[in-house]
Amino acid sequence: MPIKKSAMKALRQNKKATVKNYKVKANLKELIKKSRKLIEAKDQSTSPESVKQAIKAIDKAVQNKIIKKNTGSRKKSRLMKRLNQLEVK
């Protein structure tokens, strides 16, 4: 355990941030999974909407530095690639 007052405060802040970041990442994974399932089910009516929602969440996570910029770009790219393959076929 930290001894100095500032270190104690830093630890409290770190714990709060960890919990918040975990929730955001879990929500992100859930949205991406949901989008992929809809794409694989070839549900053309709801797939684009769910992908759009997932991309919005990815952008927010990148903006708040919860995930790295390149990771966000990679995830968006792979989602769009799958969606475009659905629309071509």
3D structure, described in words:
By secondary structure, the chain is mainly α. It has a single domain (16-88), classed as Methane Monooxygenase Hydroxylase, Chain G, domain 1. It contains three helices and no strands. The radius of gyration is 17 Å and the shape is elongated.
Radius of gyration: 17 Å
Q: Roughly how much helix do the residues carry, as a percent range?
A: over 70%
The fold-level CATH name is: Methane Monooxygenase Hydroxylase, Chain G, domain 1
- What is the number of beta strands? 0
Major β-sheet, in short? none
Keywords, separated by commas or semicolons:
mainly alpha, Methane Monooxygenase Hydroxylase, Chain G, domain 1, 0% strand
Describe the secondary-structure layout:
Blueprint (H helix, E strand, L loop, with lengths): L4 H36 L6 H17 L5 H20 L1
Helix pairs in contact: 1-2, 1-3, 2-3
Summarize the entry for a quick read:
This protein has 89 residues and is mainly α. 82% of the residues lie in helices and 0% in strands.
